[in-house]
Every structure is written in structure tokens, then in C-alpha cells.
Amino acid sequence: MIVRIMGEGQWQLADSHLVELNTLDDELLAEMESGDEDGFHRTLGALLDAVRRLGDRLPDDALEPSELILPAPDASLDEVRQMLSDDGLIPG
Amino acid sequence: MSGVMKRMGMIFRAKANKALDRAEDPRETLDYSYQKQLELLQKVRRGVADVATSRKRLELQLNQLQSQSSKLEDQGRKALALGREDLAREALSRRAALQQQVTDLETQHSTLQGEEEKLTLAAQRLQAKVDAFRTKKETIKATYTAAQAQTRIGEAFSGISEEMGDVGLAIQRAEDKTAQLQARAGALDELMASGALDDPTGIAKDDLQAELDRLSGGTDVELELQRMKAELAGGTSQAIGSGGGSSAGQQAIEGGTSQSQSQQQPQDTPRFDKQ
After folding, report:
1. Which residues form the PspA-associated domain (chain A) (predicted)?
2. What is the ipTM of this complex?
3. Rounded Cα–Cα distance for residues A82 and A79 (Å)
């Protein structure tokens, strides 16, 4: 599957890595919902590192739709909350 | 999966779907990435400006210290000229302390200058990267739009797009339904014609009844014709019998044959008709 890290690019990952990513992703969601900013940044960093480590980077000009999308490494908890609100990632 | 990754992906797809695309629209992603890069560049530039401000503040402090140092040197020289060696020593010792501060500040200044140069270089490199990304982004967007248009044209021509598929399916369904209705109507006609199904209107008749009706209708006509003929024939013989006395004697002489003659009367009707 193809995972995009916002502002960085796309990585191709084998489905077998999904379990590991899923655990971190669920943790991230829980931290986001509880408002744990420190935990959120720590888990987001770990999740992004896992994607970079386990996946193969796609060239920037590859036009592949991403199945999963992750926030940028420097995204704050509020920014991510905003992204997941009704307005979506891009306003308008 | 219901975490952040999936939800962001879903929102992205929903946005892209709104823009008549089935999947993530890379053009939006590219624009977003570019926006992020511009923000990063802005942060680096702000950093460069902060360092430059600190450097300038240090330079001002250095200038002040150096002017104080010069002043103390002048004061020491004047004190010595006036024979006040003690004052001259005091001035020179203060100047020495200032000189130490100046040296420290100069070290800090050169460090800041180095940082500033590095940051300026980084900002320039980042600027170049962002510019290159912008160019690339526009190229990719144009390529994507062209590819998308090409795909749509291809799909429209071959009729394999989802919309076309739906239309095709609707037509197929309508055709099937029409054929089904026609077949059902045909079957109903046949069933009613064969008498297996009663016609609630009572208009339609089965073949057998129709034939019976036709036959019985024909028989009635024949019977009616016979009856009328008999009536007519009966009327004529009565008129002849009561016609004159001479023929009554003839009937008595020929008595044995009179009955048979009266029975043959209807068959002689054509002869009577000729009179």
C-alpha cells in the first residue's frame, strides 16, 4: 500500500507492516483525542520513522493515489484536529 | 484501521471525489506540500533575521565598549600628564576590564556571524529547492490534468466509464423489462385463447367455444330456413285443396293415392312456384 507523509512524499509499504503501523496509528488517535500533545508528537515521530524505515520511497513525480495519509512531522495537535474536522485538509 | 492515517486518507479522498476524481488528487497534495515548504522557508528566514538582529546588538555594544575604552585611555593619558599616576592606573585597570568584555563580545560576534552565514546559505538553498519544487509541481499538475483529460476522453469513447456503464445498465434493464412484459402479454393471450385462463371481461372466447358458436349459429340459420320453407309449402297446399269441386271428385276416385300426393306436396313446390 502507498502511504503519504504530508509535505514529504509517498512510501510504498508491504501489507505485512500494517499491524505495526496500525498500533502506532491507534495510539496517535487516542493521544489526539485525549489532547496529549507530548505523546502525540512522540507517537507521530515514531509512526513517520516506521513508514520511512519500512517503506520504499516513491519518486516525487509518481502519480499514485495514497491509501493512507499522515500529517507532516511538524504538525501540531490542533492542526491535525483541524485537518480531521469537517473542513478537511484543504479549506474550501 | 480507524486511526489518523485512515481518516486523513478518507477526508482526502472525499475532497478529491468532490473534484470528480476517484482517488486522492495529487494536485491538491502538491499545493499543500508547497505551502508547507513556504512556511518552512519563512521560519528559516525568520531565524536568519533573529540572528542578524542579535549580531547588530552585539556590534552596538562593542562600539560602546570600545568608545568607553578609548575614553579611559584618554583619561589615563591626561592623568599621567597632570602627574596623577594613581588616577592613570585606575583608568587603565578599568580599560583592561572593558577590553576583556570586548574580547568576549567579539568571540560571540564571530560565532553569530558564522551562524548567520550558515543560516543564510540554508535559506538560499531552501529557496532554490522550493522554487524547483514549484516548477516541478506545476509540471506534474499539468501532466496530471492532461492525463486525466486523456483518460476521460478514452473512457467516453470506449464507453467504459462508470457513468456510461450505468447508462448501459439502465438501458439493458429497460429492454429486459419490455421483453418480459411482451412475453407476459403474449402468454396471457395464448392462455386466454386456449381457455386455460378466464377472461374477466368476458370478451375473449376460446377456440372451441368460438367453433361451437359458429356451428350452432349456422345450424340455427339452416333450421330457420327449413321452418320458413315448410310454412310456405304448407300454406300453398291448403289453397289448392279448397280451390274447386271438380278436383274433389278426382281426389275421391284416386283416393288411394291422395295421401301420398299430399306428402309429396312440399317436394312439388318448385312446380307450384312456376304457376
Report:
1. 1-92
2. 0.80
3. 5
Rounded-to-integer distance, Cα B243 and Cα B262, Å: 15
Per residue in B94-142, pLDDT tens?
Answer: 999 999 999 999 999 999 898 888 888 888 888 888 888 888 778 777 7
Closest CA to A67 of A19, A15, A28: A15
Q: Which of A69, A77, A80 is most worth mutating to test chain B (most B CB atoms within 10 A of its CB)?
A: A69
Picking from A7, A29, A66, the nearest residue to B4 by CB comes out as A29
DSSP state of A57: E
Instruction: Give the per-residue SS3 of B28-69.
Output: HHHHHHHHHHHHHHHHHHHHHHHHHHHHHHHHHHHHHHHHHH
What is the count of residue pairs from A and B with beta carbons less than 8 Å apart?
90
Distances (CA, A) of A46 to A28, A40, A53, A66, B177: 10, 10, 10, 20, 59
Report the predicted TM-score, pTM, of the whole model to 2 decimal places: 0.36
Beta-bridged to residue A57, according to DSSP, are A11
